[in-house]
Amino acid sequence: MSESSRRAMEFGKLNYLIIDDFENFRLSMRQMLRSCGADRIEQAGTAAQAIRHCTYNHVDVVLCDYNLGEGRNGQHVLEELRHRKLLKRASLFLMVTAETSKQMVMGARENQPDGYLTKPINRAMLDQRLGALIEQRNALYPINRELDRENYPEAISLCLQALPKHPRYRTWLLKTLGDLYFQLGDLSHAARVFDDALKQRELSWARLGRSKVMLANRNYEDAVASLSQLIARHPDYMEAYDLLAEGLQRQGKLVDAQHTLEQAALHSPNALLRQRQLAQLAEANQDLEAACEAWRKTVTLGTHSIHDSADHYLALAQSLTDLSEGDAEEAGAERADEALNLLKQMGKRFPEQPELDLRSRLIQCRVLAGRGKASDANRLLDQIREDGGDGQSLTADTALDYGKTLFRLGHAGEAKTLLAELAERFASDNEVLNRIEALLDEPVGFRQKLQARTLNRDGIKAFESGDLSAAVEAFSQALEIVPDHAALNLNLVQVLMKQRHSEADSSALLDRCQRCLDRLAGLPEQHRQHRRYLALRRKLEELTP
């Protein structure tokens, strides 16, 4: 049998799907595939038709145009097929495009297509490119079949057997082998595979894999250094940015992690999941301007994405609300209006979800209060109460949002009762308990929170430098903003106790210490400052005549 006949036979064994919004191109592609030996060829003119076909039919080869007109594009199709596992590991996805912009290529590459075909396409190009991929597919099919079955030990065994038989696919086999060892937690074997590959030559995937092993072994410093070097050599290698950000986070360097993802977003701006991670990091760093921008991009990218979520809308609306509160400039009003419009869009996009509607109205309350419309905000809050808004039936996220709103509208007692009930319900969930604690400590707006934190840092610096008077002044000013903040009250007590040594009459200082500790009388045992509170209370009792 001739080589052309054998290749035509291999083409003829597979199922094909052509996705393009132009019928003439679909017909042209079908004709070229038939001339290569293909027989079972289906067509789809839209992303929805393509997803539907793959949901109910097995497809071996997808040829998808990047630009599908209005709505979802080829990247969205690939993203959804991968996410929903509608394509087998052995299936091939080729992105067909006349566009070669870096933004398009980087966005599509995030979801790892098996190849690209650049228009105009002729039969010889199709036969050569697709034929080579089909040949590789057939050689590696047994391994991919076991990967689909999640039978990883057998997949490892088949990789080891294939290495001497298929030297031309050595790179794919070694990468798959290293990833499988890592996935099974066999870090020593994974490291050996990646190290052996790196001894041959510097390979990005092997350097990335070795760095993953370092992170898993908590060797954060070396992992961060390795990944930084990898990015310097290959600035378009997006996986390295994601892993570097993870390593920096584990080191507690959240600002550096944020900057790393900001760099990645410049190279590949259309990756929704990375934009979401960037937004969350920026929030953790109290960089609400950057968080807003990243959430805004996340919402925009979600319009046609399988990863779209109401949580993205809520997060952006909350960030906008926090930024608008206390901002009397035009920008503050614009952000408040954007938050309200965004919540309306969310209601249309995700209708008939009671808890989502409740969270939307809670944010609206805070927007109104932040714009000085307290009576309107309280009327809306009364409606929420009438509709049965009580903490017992709410998720932790919604209950915390409810508590935050109650504090902002001046209902501190009701907020504390709600959070106490929430703490009982989630007594074994440390993350929820920490969020409750943070809200109780700082039940104020974003700008006030930042001001109090700055004053707290100033007080700590003054205390460490020995300037006790400046420390007392800074902590006192911070407590005017957040009077029930546990750490701040205890910081002030600690400074006052030390200051008493230089005072002729220390009774006034001790009385002030007592008032600070009295504020914390109801501090729950789970609070991180509870032990310190008890220790300082005992010390004060010893000092008090």
Automatic annotation (TrEMBL):
Keywords attached to this entry: Phosphoprotein, TPR repeat
Domain Response regulatory: 15-134
Presence of the UniProt keyword Phosphoprotein in the record: yes
Any coiled-coil regions, as ranges: none
Residues found modified as 4-aspartylphosphate: 65
Record-linked InterPro entries: CheY-like_superfamily, Sig_transdc_resp-reg_receiver, ST_Response_Regulator, TPR-like_helical_dom_sf, TPR_rpt
Protein name: Response regulator
Biological source species: Marinobacter qingdaonensis
